[in-house]
Write a structure and sequence with these properties.
Layout: E1 22-26, E2 31-36, E3 45-52, E4 65-66, E5 68-73, E6 76-81, E7 92-101, E8 104-113, E9 118-119, E10 124-129, E11 139-145, E12 157-166, E13 170-180, E14 187-193, E15 200-209, E16 223-224, E17 229-230, E18 247-249, E19 255-258, E20 273-277, E21 285-286, E22 290-293, H1 297-302, E23 304-311, E24 321-325
């Protein structure tokens, strides 16, 4: 018998349908479209056009606009409707996609919501507003405008997302839904609540069309506030935590007072320390988390009420933590 040579045979077919065409307008300037090219061993030619209006409105098919700047990279077909061919004010388009090869031609029609697929540029003039009101102690007033360019004329509701980041809070995001961009000047404002005083914050904002899919691709780039923010220092909000038995009396009449340190993020200002006082006077030594009354016989024998407040460069906390040291006669001593 004589051997038979094997060959690989590739069989092509008529063009397959395209399940989805993705189109996005960047800042309402032009329109960029793409889709995945189905596998076919016969070359297929694609042509994408659109007309204004819905599929059922046949009259609009008279004026068709061609998608230009066609590229095919890694099985992705991409093209662009230039600024001159992009009818941005039309709410709805009908796309006509034609695919053809030597075995046949396939035509498809897609409806497209134009405004829903706009990817905006970042908001402009994102600024801190100087504010002397009472709200300023725990918030910052901000303003911003629509992106530069044609998008300022868009009559659509908008979503804004604000990112607030500090070493104390990490990143927190605030979502502002359906801010209207219709009548009147395209100015926006929002008072951003902040949790900590005397801590630096980095604040950013981005936006998208409210009706757009909640997908990262539909959001604008982030833009930062024109300056980092630090709230003015204020007195500490609270004293340190203490335990009922947060003291120790040594045989030499040294008296130690203990408390739990207030975390750095709640210092609310520079030069943070603690103020310890009682009717027996102040301590001999003040440490980071305890104080020492050296050889204080009156305190060791007669007891006292120790008051501990937080303190910074602005002043003392309003409230005090209290440790009550009973007199010698009121104490329960260990069994001998």
């Amino acid at each position: 018998y004589q051997g038979v040579t094997t060959v690989d045979l590739f069989v092509g077919h008529k063009p397959d349908s395209i399940p989805k065409v993705d189109c996005h307008s960047y800042n309402w300037v032009d329109l960029n479209c793409s889709f995945i090219i189905p596998e076919n061993h016969l070359a297929v030619q694609y042509e994408l056009k659109y007309s204004q209006g819905e599929i059922k409105d046949k009259s609009n098919f008279r004026q068709l606009y061609d998608c230009e700047s066609v590229t095919k990279t890694n099985n992705v077909f991409s093209c662009r409707f230039s600024e001159n061919k992009y009818r941005r004010v039309a709410k709805t388009f009908t796309f006509q996609l034609t695919a053809s090869n030597i075995l046949g031609t396939l035509e498809q029609a897609f409806e497209f919501d134009n405004f829903k697929n706009i990817i905006p540029d970042a908001p402009s003039k994102f600024e801190k507003v100087e504010d002397s009101s009472s709200h300023n102690i725990n918030s910052v007033q901000t303003t911003w405008k629509m992106p530069m360019g044609k998008l300022g004329a868009l009559d659509e509701k908008l979503d804004f997302e604000i990112s607030v980041n500090s070493e104390c809070s990490g990143e927190k995001r605030i979502l502002l839904r359906e801010f209207y961009s219709g009548d009147g000047p395209k100015n926006f404002s929002y008072r951003i609540p902040l949790d900590y005083s005397h801590v630096w914050y980095v604040i950013r904002i981005r936006m998208k069309i409210s009706r757009a899919e909640n997908d990262e691709i539909m959001w604008s780039p982030w833009v930062s506030l024109n300056q980092n923010v630090q709230l003015a220092a204020r007195v500490p909000d609270f004293p340190p935590e203490v335990n009922v038995g947060g003291f120790n009396i040594l045989p030499n009449n040294d008296v130690y007072i203990y408390w739990k340190n207030v975390p750095n993020c709640y210092h609310n200002g520079k030069s943070f320390t603690y103020d310890v006082s009682s009717e027996r006077g102040g301590p001999t030594e003040l440490k980071e988390s305890f104080a020492i009354y050296r050889k204080n016989v009156p305190l060791a024998n007669n007891g006292a009420e120790i008051r501990i407040k937080s303190q910074n460069v602005v002043g003392l906390s309003r409230d005090a933590s209290i440790i009550r040291i009973p007199s010698d006669s009121e104490r329960l001593w260990r069994p001998k």
